[in-house]
Amino acid sequence: MTPDLMEAGAQARARLQAQVLARGEPVFNQGVALYVEDLRVAFDGFQALGGLSLTLGLGELRCVIGPNGAGKTTLMDCITGKTRPDSGRLFFGSNLDLRRMSETEIARAGIGRKFQKPTVFEALTVQQNLELALAGDRRVRQALRARLSAAQRDRLDELLQEVHLWSEADRVAGLLSHGQKQWLEIGMLLAQDPRLLLLDEPVAGMTDEETARTAELFRCLAGRHTLLVVEHDMAFVGELAGADGQVTVLHEGRVLAEGRMDEVQANEQVIEVYLGR
Ligand SMILES: Nc1ncnc2c1ncn2[C@@H]1O[C@H](COP(=O)(O)OP(=O)(O)OP(=O)(O)O)[C@@H](O)[C@H]1O
């Protein structure tokens, strides 16, 4: 290749990179979805996060566990921009500094969050809830009247199957079981095609069968999405982590241990502060 062509290639790459940055999209060229370094948050002098560091690989399914007050929710709040860290580094991909972005910008960049309590539109059907999510941030009535494109229709069908609600498509969401409502909300999050999904105690209140199906769903989503799951149900965490997945244990705002499920379960400190309780 001639020097001219090499120069033109470098300029084209730089232009592309600048466009991506201007659009606020993450760049995952290092294989890292989320990079957290020495994150600190204090509330009125009380240190909720005291130097937390964590790296999530692209497409990874990571479980975060730890006793009450360990900082799990605060970590999620920092990632979504709800809480502003006092110091530390927090990057989505290699380029997006989440500390400089608003909650809306962070959501648009592809970080979706599922809270413990489902928040679906109870009076609408399962399908209408998903249609709304696919239509984006348009107003409810306008979104319901808008016709979905053929691609969106296909995606709707895919979502209904993915979250096990195909046979419930025309049912009013208020009549679903607790577990089904949780799946519907996960489907609504997936409709926005997030790159990173934060899931806070997703199986709390679910039956054993619903919990097993949720584990299966999350394992299917990993790879296409990066998942960070906060959960106290250790059987569920074990299902998600499998033999090789990494589990992170938080305690007093820091990472106490990180490793495979069997390593974490055998860790004396983890047993003392969390598992042995
Ligand atoms: N807005 C706030 N103001 C004051 N203190 C707070 C605030 N948010 C969290 N904290 C404190 O920070 C610590 C960490 O809380 P956090 O909710 O992140 O823990 P957690 O690991 O999610 O706990 P749990 O498992 O009970 O949900 C707790 O001691 C909590 O009381």
TrEMBL record:
<protein>
    <submittedName>
        <fullName>Urea ABC transporter ATP-binding protein UrtD</fullName>
    </submittedName>
</protein>
<keyword id="KW-0547">Nucleotide-binding</keyword>
<dbReference type="InterPro" id="IPR017781">
    <property type="entry name" value="ABC_transptr_urea_ATP-bd_UrtD"/>
</dbReference>
<dbReference type="GO" id="GO:0016887">
    <property type="term" value="F:ATP hydrolysis activity"/>
</dbReference>
<dbReference type="GO" id="GO:0005886">
    <property type="term" value="C:plasma membrane"/>
</dbReference>
<feature type="domain" description="ABC transporter">
    <location>
        <begin position="34"/>
        <end position="277"/>
    </location>
</feature>
<dbReference type="InterPro" id="IPR027417">
    <property type="entry name" value="P-loop_NTPase"/>
</dbReference>
<dbReference type="Pfam" id="PF12399">
    <property type="entry name" value="BCA_ABC_TP_C"/>
</dbReference>
<dbReference type="InterPro" id="IPR032823">
    <property type="entry name" value="BCA_ABC_TP_C"/>
</dbReference>
<keyword id="KW-0067">ATP-binding</keyword>
<dbReference type="Pfam" id="PF00005">
    <property type="entry name" value="ABC_tran"/>
</dbReference>
<dbReference type="GO" id="GO:0005524">
    <property type="term" value="F:ATP binding"/>
</dbReference>
<dbReference type="InterPro" id="IPR003439">
    <property type="entry name" value="ABC_transporter-like_ATP-bd"/>
</dbReference>
<keyword id="KW-0813">Transport</keyword>
<dbReference type="InterPro" id="IPR051120">
    <property type="entry name" value="ABC_AA/LPS_Transport"/>
</dbReference>
